[in-house]
Amino acid sequence: MAAAAFSNAAHASIASGDLIAIGSLSGSGAGLNADLSGLTGTLENGVAANYLGGIGSGLAYAGGNIFIATPDRGPNAVAYNSGLNDTVSYISRFQTVSLDLSANHSGTGLAYNLAPKLVSTTLLSNATALNYGAGVGKQVGGVTPVGNGAPALNAANNTYYFTGRSDNFGSANPLTGIPDASSANASNARFDPEGVRVSNDGKSVFISDEYGPYVYQFDRATGQRIRVFNLPANLDVAKLSPVGKTEESNTSGRVDNKGMEGLALTPDGKTLVGIMQAPLLQDGKKSGIDRIVTIDIATGATHEYAYQLTTGSGVSEIVAINDHEFLVDERDGSGLGNGDSAAVKQLFKIDLSGVTDISAFSGSTAALQATAVPNTLFLDVVKSLNANGISSDKIPAKLEGVSFGRDITDGGVLYHTLFVANDNDFLPNVAGTNQFYVFAFADSALNYQAQQFSAVPVPGAVWLFGSALMGFVGRSARKNRC
Predict the structure, then answer these.
(1) Distance of CA 51 to CAs 27, 41, 114, 121, Å?
(2) Burial of 454 by CB count in 10 Å (0-12 exposed, 13-18 middle, 19+ buried)?
(3) DSSP code at position 394
(4) Which residues does the UniProt record annotate as the domain Phytase-like (predicted)?
(5) Which of 21, 79, 286, 318 is the right S-S partner for 114, CB 3.0 to 4.6 Å?
């Protein structure tokens, strides 16, 4: 990707590793805290169906100034039904965002300005039937009852949408009470998007999730699923429940709400690299070993590698530097949104060359730790933001989306830009707005290879067909509100 040339006249000179810009996104042409899905009405907990939030759960470069951002399973901070983990029928989606970077010539502030703008919203769907939950149909202890988990939009559009509701999986065996399929069942409608990357042809996106964990490929223009990648079975859990903590009675597989949090794509577009947020149940919560899973896109073949957590309590993202080196985002849960001060938001550099495949390893902490990929600290985000006058209690607790962007040339030096975004849990008044922080690294600081896009299609801003359908969606949502 050609570098954008900027003159450093009248703006502060930059150095490798500097924070160069900050931007926020609080709404769209549809209004404050509203996305461009065209959805109307409210969800089961009273939150608007088109609520714009959490978009820094995943962030992917798509060429030019365009990025793809993924909100996770939706707004579930409002308590209304603990039997569903307070999750709602928020339709899974990705947001197409323009992050326009320009030199700041004002003489004050950071060296660059960042102007985020929401371009479009794309809902995620499947062409064939998915499994939806029956809900909780009676009032128990003041808990709000809810109906079937299928969105009303399914019938309106004759398609099947993925949602964040925790009960949207296959029905249980009447004898055992346990679903007949594992959490890897690709017919389940529940989907908790986290990592996202754009294919080299620009026509599709790859998204990883925490419920399965799953890795799916979606058509970028329509949002329809076009491929399911089969992940190693040792990541799955056998006993499913709409109450996440209940799933931890499993003896193997991912920890509840800590599935495949990060996803990278090698610059050649041939290999996906996912990373789990926390150790698998069989590896032991205290092992500190997260699994990295590589997926050959052409063949579907997978490999697993060990990543040893350092200062963070978990991993939120992984992004490719080149075909064998990656940045891993470790963080704690502290900061803005958690009511305390951020301490650990760090990016570590790793190299998978020659690392031992641990696919067959299970339960031996010492063996796993002995094979862990070496890592070195690359960027301490808290330290950098503190140095720029941002106190630790104002640093978002969930800095989860990480992506390289367009190169820039400043003062005759080539820099690679690195964008870091937050997941504000759909709580802008508590966790702050959707924030984007931009750092610059000199070309000499890392062996970076940019992803080359052959096309950059941008979906239309509104996918709904006509005002009559929009009215139908609104009426249906209001009718089913509990």
Answers:
(1) 9, 10, 23, 11
(2) exposed
(3) G
(4) 52-426
(5) 21
> Residues in the chain, how many?
482
Within 8 A by CB and 6+ apart from 93, the residues are 35, 37, 70, 71, 121, 122, 123, 124, 223
Q: What is the pLDDT of residues 329-365, one digit of tens each?
A: 999 999 999 999 999 999 999 999 999 999 998 777 7
Q: What per-residue confidence (pLDDT) applies to 476?
A: 30
Number of domains present in the structure of the chain: 1
Residues 6+ apart with CB under 8 A from 104: 11, 21, 110, 111, 112, 113
> Residue 344 is encoded by which pair of tokens?
């650990």
Tokens coding 427: 């709580």
pLDDT in tens, 75-120: 998 888 888 999 999 999 999 999 999 999 998 999 999 999 999 9
Select from 376, 379, 448, 436 the least CA-distant residue to 408: 448
Decide if 333 is inside a domain: no
Q: What would the two tokens of residue 298 be?
A: 């052409």
Distance, C-alpha 323 to centroid of its chain: 21
Cα–Cα distance, 111 to 102 (Å, whole number): 9
Maximum distance among all Cα pairs of the chain, rounded to whole angstroms = 74
C-beta contacts of 463-468 below 8 A and 24+ residues apart = 463/37, 463/38, 463/121, 463/122, 463/123, 463/222, 463/223, 464/37, 464/38
User: Does residue 305 lie within any of the structural domains?
Assistant: no
pTM metric for this prediction: 0.92
Give CA–CA dist 408/416, Å, rounded.
6
DSSP 233-270: GGG--SS--SSGGGGGGSSSSPBTTBSEEEEEE-TTS-
Chain position carrying tokens 């849960």: 333
Range list of H helices, 231-379? 365-370
Is 313 within a domain? no
Closest CA to 109 of 26, 10, 16, 27: 10
First-to-final CA distance of the chain:
50
**Using CA atoms, how far apart are residues 366 and 375, in angstroms rounded to an integer?**
18
CA distance 457 to 81: 40
Residue with tokens 């928020």: 90
Range of the structural domain that residue 432 is part of:
4-255+383-479
